[in-house]
Structure to design on (203 residues):
């Protein structure tokens, strides 16, 4: 479970480090090589290592399950397996934890890239906020969904600006002011619990 959690976080960093996303990445030392064939790449090699080692841990877990069934509850066929998987697993996990701690301590984060990627959607990521706001105003959820969706589809299919269309939508204007719409498109509330979350980790 610990290895799987490390793998989950390492996989997220690997995705964020993709050239077309680049919102966060492992520390990349001057002169370090990412790819022998593509000099521009900054590969997350340590995160990749952690993901690979998580597979080893899961393999060892399968070996442990194979050890459950013993002849007359007493044969020692499990012993030879345990002599390998117990030290190997604990040493591997210790290595993974040390490596991931180092990744987090030196993690490079790019907030401007995060904001730019959010803005690529043309505001579509705020459709749920708008839907909830309309419902809280007394609009039937089915109607609110239809109004928000038609403006969202105009963005998808025609490249229209989602927020501008919402502000001009006659049905939505009956229930929400421009200021109320603006609040729905504000990303700051999404971070309102960040201090509480970090406090749980003692940070």
């Amino acid at each position: 479970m610990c290895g799987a959690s490390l793998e989950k976080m390492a996989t997220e960093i690997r995705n964020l480090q993709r050239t077309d996303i680049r919102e966060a990445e492992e520390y990349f030392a001057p002169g370090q090589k990412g790819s022998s064939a593509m000099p521009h790449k900054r590969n997350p090699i340590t995160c990749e290592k952690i993901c690979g080692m998580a597979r080893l841990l899961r393999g060892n877990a399968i070996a442990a399950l194979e050890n459950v069934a013993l002849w007359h509850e007493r044969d020692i066929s499990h012993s030879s397996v345990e002599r390998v998987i117990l030290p190997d697993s604990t040493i591997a996990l210790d290595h993974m934890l040390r490596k991931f701690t180092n990744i987090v301590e030196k993690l490079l984060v790019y907030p401007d890239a995060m904001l730019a990627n959010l803005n690529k959607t043309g505001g579509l990521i705020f459709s749920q906020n708008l839907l909830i706001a309309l419902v809280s105003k007394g609009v039937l959820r089915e109607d609110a969904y239809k109004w928000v969706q038609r403006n969202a589809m105009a963005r998808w299919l025609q490249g229209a600006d989602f927020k501008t269309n919402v502000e001009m939508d006659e049905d939505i204007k009956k229930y929400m002011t421009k200021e109320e719409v603006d609040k729905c498109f504000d990303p700051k509330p999404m971070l309102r619990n960040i201090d509480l979350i970090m406090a749980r980790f003692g940070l």
